[in-house]
What we know:
Elements: H1 13-20, H2 30-34, H3 41-53, H4 56-82, H5 84-139, H6 149-164
Amino acid sequence: xxxxxxxxxxxxxxxxxxxxxxxxxxxxxxxxxxxxxxxxxxxxxxxxxxxxxxxxxxxxxxxxxxxxxxxxxxxxxxxxxxxxxxxxxxxxxxxxxxxxxxxxxxxxxxxxxxxxxxxxxxxxxxxxxxxxxxxxxxxxxxxxxxxxxxxxxxxxxxxxxxxxx
Length: 165
């Protein structure tokens, strides 16, 4: 069996373009561009003057913004110069609010202190209950619990003292 012929024929791109013919005209040609109507020197001067003046809409917008800014400045001046009475009232309100906040904080502190005292009382009463339960353990009244050695030794000492007396 023979080998396959995988050669590709070479085409000259310039010759192929010539064979296709001239490209179709889709847009304006150079000749159209050069022969377009041009403005006269007077028309150019008028256009430049219009650009220097700027657009009327922009000028109107700037005037409105300036008016708004002036109004804001007047309001701020009134607040600063003529609004001293309002400032005093605001300061009084702030002082009252601060006093109320301080009172609330003091009340909260007192509540916390009371809770701490209650917790301390509960802890001491709980210790007494534990002491009674160890006595019950030693006498065999409670079953299945572990007795702490220090409490056991304290109990033994108390018993010895009672026997001596």
